[in-house]
Amino acid sequence: MKGVLSVKMLAALALVLLVFGATDGRILSKCELKEELEAAQIPVIRAMGNKMTVDDLIAKLVCMASASGFNTSYVKAIPAKPKAPVIRQLYGVFQLSDQLACDSGMKPSLNVCNMSCSALIDDDVTDDIACLKTMISSM
Ligand SMILES: *[C@@H]1O[C@H](CO)[C@@H](O)[C@H](O)[C@H]1NC(C)=O
Ligand SMILES: *[C@@H]1O[C@H](CO)[C@@H](O)[C@H](O)[C@H]1NC(C)=O
């Protein structure tokens, strides 16, 4: 009986750790992100220039993600001027905008990716990459 209880308690503890751990975000490795980007087959579009290759594009996107510290839970508020009220927030490793990419429910957004901004700050980057791909395709 005692054994069963402690197994349950361990399971509950693991769940708590999982839930609270998720709020801290996950730090992706560059290689992990690169692999995810490669798997997503993001198209190179003409607006990126004639010389852009898929490898160049992926390198640029990894570089862009480095501004978030590869943190899947990254959120940054951008005020119009220092100390002014926040006008937009950027979400996730690719710092996608709540005026353009996703809907935070707090301000008008084009919501190009038709998704809630909160989905961009969970541990799963596949939806972030899907949104990035949608944004690029809609350019
Ligand atoms: C990731 O970003 C979130 C929100 O900006 C922050 O609270 C968290 O501490 C960051 N995680 C790490 C490991 O830096
Ligand atoms: C947006 O997402 C909602 C729910 O996920 C779906 O019902 C709706 O059809 C989507 N709209 C577009 C334009 O894709």
Automatic annotation (TrEMBL):
GO MF term (any one):
lysozyme activity
State the Gene3D superfamilies in the record: 1.10.530.10
Give the InterPro entries listed for this entry.
Answer: Glyco_hydro_22, Lysozyme-like_dom_sf
- Keyword Signal listed? The answer is yes
Please tell me whether the keyword Signal is annotated for this protein: yes
| Superkingdom of source | Eukaryota
Q: Which Pfam families match?
A: Lys
Which UniProt keywords are given for this protein, alphabetically ordered?
Answer: Signal
Q: Which positions carry the signal peptide feature in this UniProt record?
A: 1-25
- Put simply, this protein is called Lysozyme
Native species of this protein?
A: Culter alburnus
